[in-house]
Amino acid sequence: MNIISNDRMTKVISVVLAVMFGVLLISLVVDAATTISGTTITLENAETISNGTNGTVTIGADVLKLVGTASTSAIRVGDEADVPVIDGLVDGYCTIAAIDVSAATTTYALCTGATGVISGDKVFVQATSSLPVSTIITAASSTATAGTINLRFHALAGAETIAANTVSVWFWAVR
Questions:
Q1: How do beta strands 75-76 and 48-53 pair?
Q2: What string of H, E and C letters represents the secondary structure of 88-139?
Q3: Could you give the angle at the alpha carbon of 10 between the alpha carbons of 7 and 14, nearest 5°?
Q4: Is the dihedral of CA 27, 29, 33, 38 positive or negative?
Q5: What's the rounded Cα separation, in Å, for the pair 146 and 70?
Q6: pTM of the prediction?
Q7: Domain ranges across the chain
Q8: CA-to-CA distance for 100 and 129, rounded, in angstroms?
Q9: Which end of the chain is more exposed for a tag (fewer CB within 10 A), N or C?
Q10: How many Cα neighbours within 13 Å face the side chain of 17?
């Protein structure tokens, strides 16, 4: 019997070589993972990804970059038991309409163009150099209208007139 012309032996050798090649390829692809044990993956530079409890994944690294979009999930920052959830985070700037601000009264203005801000967001603002020096922002909140922030102004002395679309405000909004 000639081993080379035996179809059955050729198939067996082909399968064995294919399996060996597959195992080699897989071991090269997962070379970045140096240790996989139970619920923990340890990467080349000692970073870890673990799932000690159902539903919680812990990543141990000095720098973490999240790339992509998670529309049905939330982020918790910190390891305390009752850390608040961050369901969304947006930033940018918006522009206010014309207003007259005086020290004697509270003046409100809508800051439009705040893309991504929705009702219920916690809003943090910072005035830009376009805000008159003697004017301060004393409060900020999201509104029922998406993309709009309500700002409360106060003049430190006298009165200030702010022309339409001349003042922009930087914002962060968290939901």
A1: unpaired
A2: CEEEEEEEECCEEEECCCCEEEEEECCCCCCCCCEEEEEECCCCCCCEEEEE
A3: 140
A4: negative
A5: 21
A6: 0.60
A7: 1-65, 89-174
A8: 18
A9: N
A10: 6
55, amino acid identity:
G
**What DSSP string describes 39-98?**
TEEEETTS-EEEEEETTEEEEE-SS----S--TT--EE-SSSTTPPEE--EEEEEEEE--
Tokens of 50: 């673990």
Question: Residue 77: what are its φ and ψ, rounded to 5°?
Answer: -110, 120
Mean pLDDT of the region 158-164:
83
- Per-residue buried b or exposed e for 137-156, using 16+ beta carbons within 10 Å of the residue's own CB: beebebbeeebbbbbebbbe
Q: How far apart are CA 62 and CA 2, in angstroms?
A: 62
Residue at token pair 């000639």: 2
Q: What are the residues facing 128 on neighbouring strands?
A: none
Rounded (5°) CA angle 119-105-157: 115
State both tokens at 44. 């080349």
Q: What pLDDT digit, counting tens, does each position of 17-60 carry?
A: 777 766 666 666 555 545 666 778 888 788 888 887 777 778 88
Token digits of residue 14: 């082909």
Residue with the two structure tokens 């920052």? 77
